[in-house]
């Protein structure tokens, strides 16, 4: 299928260097070429784009290139689309040039440079390595020393990758309407549950293509069109290749309202790793773990951790002009997006840590970035409403100080006013502490004790989650689900329970990022021993609660990225209990979570020796409470339904459902018999 390319001839090189006369197919390549000419910065200093121009700031030599007439129309379309500083949301809808904007370099050439690849002074990878990729005959005639052989292989790899990437994109049936639909679904389904992009001030033409590609890839998960998932994965690969090969260039790009370079790169990494973590492709899931730490590195390298805070006296008033209010709004939004881009990586860090069974990549408790603004302020549709919400919002404070408050004994009576986004950051920080304890296999110097973590988790529940539930705030349900999941991890690493079951029943270990081998992954963990302890029943109670919450969760709130993991973790715990001949459990009809965990808060607590009977006796002293029976197979069935419906848009859910289904079948076949001897 041919793509619409109305602006330029695909084989032309419309950007010409004034100093040496060389022509290039892309303006950013020309900009890199201009760096080689000495003295270019002084002559172009006053040509840098300003926020009012609606263009990305990259390097100072960029404006020296003179586009030939063939490119003038295309540039005019791109710039005119971004002239307004305050566009309406979704201003890309029905725009035919979206496909052009994302894939302008893939039209017409059989061998294209890797997207946004950073080869200084070269218009393609092959030009960087030599004047041209040698033909087979030239390679055959060249001396076959080790160096030449290695260079030959590099040439072939680059040429092959470029050809395959170009061929896949051109034969996949991409249309502008498909990309429009994906972006629309991103803002409708993904962004509300993971608000890191400020939709109200977002402009397509001011965003780097890899960021847009990841947004489109995430949105494609919710587009009910044949081949949408395959197209989305292809676009993700394109964006991932761009970041992996060109981050040195991308980290120097600054948006028109950004205070630092690299904000869009860090956002790109965040959304790309989110897609990868929940992909049905295990190889793609691996990249979420392998590349995750780079987001923190890029943020620190760019200076993004220096996030400015807006003071109440700096807020504009409602009486100011629209231009002044909108300018302040956009400047604030850029700072808030910078903050959430980094905090989002901390959230993702906890999820990746749980999925892989590895410690977190960052030290969450020393994070000095301020808490996120209120949910209402970030979602305000106009500058006036933003001003009102900011005036009514509590003052933010560093995340590290928020952790100190959460660990205090009186937090529940004097809690912090935290946005849902910040609560997620705190919970993932507590998850990172739990993973540290699992890694250390006991208390070691410098770690936070399990007792302290449990108290902090209960504080978050009583101070931040429970009040929202009493106010009928449906958004608290997302946080509550994650809270339960982390408490399950406090009883035992769910990845070890899963691996133990896979090892016992010869099931493929395809989750947790990579195909894991059973040897060396279980350590001293024994499911028999764990299932006889009170922690196993605690985990089961949290898992059952997740099932109940999901039954009440509105569909609009069901697309949060941690839900598939929560469902799978719950199903693994319940299945493990069921396979150990506990088809039905009896628990008190009413209990509080502080009652569930109170025995672990005493100085004399011995969690490794507390058995289920003692735990139940503590929950129901003197047999004064009504007991209810819960069918574990029924709970598993409910979780399978959720994986097939609510969580089905995330690709990994299908594999999760397959594993749980096979374990459930084993449990059903062996009811009444001892499965594990």
Overview of this structure, please?
There is one protein chain. The chain folds into 3 domains: 292 residues, no CATH class; 167 residues, no CATH class; 185 residues, no CATH class. A hairpin with a 6-residue loop joins β1 and β2. The longest helix is centred in the middle third of the chain and has 35 residues. It has 677 residues and is mainly α. The N terminus is likely disordered. The termini are far apart. α20 runs antiparallel to α23. It has a 3-stranded antiparallel sheet with strand order 2-1-3. It has 28 helices and 5 strands.
Helix content range? 40-55%
Uncertain residue segments: 1-12, 38-55, 59-89, 91-95, 105-139
Instruction: Kindly give the count of domains.
Output: 3
**With helices defined by DSSP (H or I, 4 residues minimum), what is the helix count?**
28
| Number of DSSP-assigned strands | 5
> Terminal Cα separation, in Å?
60 Å
Which structural class fits the helix and strand makeup? Answer: mainly alpha
Q: Please, what is the average pLDDT?
A: 78
Strand content: under 5%
**What's the alpha carbon Rg, rounded to whole Å?**
27 Å
The backbone outline, from C-alpha atoms, is globular
């Amino acid at each position: 299928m041919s793509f619409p390319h109305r602006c330029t001839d695909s084989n032309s090189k419309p950007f010409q260097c004034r100093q040496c006369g060389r022509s290039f197919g892309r303006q950013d390549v020309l900009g890199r070429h201009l760096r080689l000419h000495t003295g270019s910065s002084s002559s172009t200093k006053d040509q840098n784009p300003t926020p009012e121009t609606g263009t990305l700031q990259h390097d100072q030599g960029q404006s020296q290139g003179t586009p030939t007439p063939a490119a003038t129309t295309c540039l005019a379309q791109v710039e005119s689309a971004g002239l307004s500083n305050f566009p309406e949301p979704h201003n890309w809808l029905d725009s035919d040039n979206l496909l052009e904007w994302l894939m302008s370099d893939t039209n017409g050439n059989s061998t294209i440079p890797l997207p946004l690849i950073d080869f200084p002074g070269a218009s393609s990878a092959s030009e960087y390595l030599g004047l041209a990729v040698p033909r087979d005959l030239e390679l055959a005639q060249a001396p076959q020393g080790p160096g030449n052989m290695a260079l030959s292989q590099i040439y072939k790899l680059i040429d092959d990758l470029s050809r395959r990437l170009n061929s896949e994109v051109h034969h996949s049936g991409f249309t502008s309407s498909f990309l429009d639909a994906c972006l629309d679904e991103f803002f409708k389904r993904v962004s509300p549950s993971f608000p890191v992009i400020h939709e109200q001030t977002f402009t397509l033409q001011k965003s780097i293509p890899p960021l847009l590609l990841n947004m489109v890839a995430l949105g494609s998960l919710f587009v009910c069109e044949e081949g949408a998932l395959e197209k989305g994965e292809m676009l993700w690969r394109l964006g991932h290749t761009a970041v992996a090969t060109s981050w040195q260039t991308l980290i120097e790009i600054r948006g028109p309202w950004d205070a630092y370079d690299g904000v869009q790169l860090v956002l790109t990494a965040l959304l790309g790793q989110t897609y990868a973590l929940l992909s049905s492709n295990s190889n793609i899931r691996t990249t979420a773990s392998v590349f995750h730490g780079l987001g923190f590195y890029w943020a620190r390298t760019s200076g993004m951790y220096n996030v400015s805070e807006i003071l109440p006296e700096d807020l504009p008033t409602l009486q100011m002009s629209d231009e002044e209010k909108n300018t302040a709004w956009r400047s604030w939004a850029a700072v808030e997006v910078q903050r959430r881009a980094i905090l989002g990586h901390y959230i993702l860090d906890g999820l990746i840590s749980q999925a892989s069974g590895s410690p977190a990549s960052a030290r969450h408790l020393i994070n000095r970035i301020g808490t996120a603004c209120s949910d209402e302020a970030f979602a305000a549709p106009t500058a006036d409403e933003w001003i009102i919400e900011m005036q009514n919002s509590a003052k933010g404070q560093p995340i590290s100080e928020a952790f100190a408050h959460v660990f205090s004994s009186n937090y529940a009576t004097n809690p912090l006013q935290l946005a849902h986004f910040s609560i997620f950051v705190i919970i993932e920080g507590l998850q990172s502490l739990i993973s540290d304890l699992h890694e250390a296999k006991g208390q070691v110097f410098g770690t936070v004790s399990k007792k302290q973590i449990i108290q902090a988790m209960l504080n978050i529940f009583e101070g931040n989650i429970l009040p929202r539930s009493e106010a009928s705030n449906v958004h608290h349900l997302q946080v509550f689900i994650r809270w339960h999941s982390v408490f399950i991890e406090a009883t035992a690493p769910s990845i070890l329970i899963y691996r133990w079951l896979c090892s016992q029943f010869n099931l493929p270990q395809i989750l947790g990022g990579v195909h894991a081998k059973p040897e060396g992954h279980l350590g001293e963990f024994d499911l028999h021993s764990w299932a006889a302890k009170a922690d196993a029943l605690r985990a089961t109670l949290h898992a059952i609660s997740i099932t109940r919450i999901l039954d009440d969760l509105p569909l609009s709130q069901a697309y949060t990225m941690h839900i598939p993991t929560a469902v799978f973790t719950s199903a693994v715990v319940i299945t493990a209990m069921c396979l150990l001949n506990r088809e039905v459990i009896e628990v008190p009809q009413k209990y509080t979570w502080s009652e569930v965990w109170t025995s672990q808060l005493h100085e004399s607590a011995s969690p490794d020796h507390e058995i289920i009977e003692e735990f139940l006796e503590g929950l129901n002293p003197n047999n004064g409470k009504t007991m209810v029976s819960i069918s574990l197979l029924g709970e598993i069935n409910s979780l399978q339904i959720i994986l097939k419906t609510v969580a089905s848009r995330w690709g990994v859910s299908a594999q999760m459902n397959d594993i749980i289904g096979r374990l459930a079948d084993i449990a059903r076949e062996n009811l009444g018999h001892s499965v594990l001897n």
